[in-house]
Amino acid sequence: MKKHQNFKPNYMQIQDYILYKIESGEYPVGSKIPSEVELAEMFSVSRITANKAIKELSIMGILERTRGRGTFVKDFSEEKTIPRLSYLPSSWS
Is 89 inside a domain boundary? Predict the structure, then answer.
């Protein structure tokens, strides 16, 4: 009998990684996060997958994308909270 594995899509793993870095203070407000290409290489996924992760965090108001400059951690209000992490590998700490 196969074990049930907790599968999480790659783009969500990237989101969790970025959120972890924000919560830990490694990516403070206004800081630039890695590019789509860098994230794609880090997670061994396509740039499109990294793009989806960043796009959704931008829609949520956590990141701000600026064409030609990069993606930055947005100063979100206290009313908005960072979604709780559901996947946190020990290698990120």
Answer: no
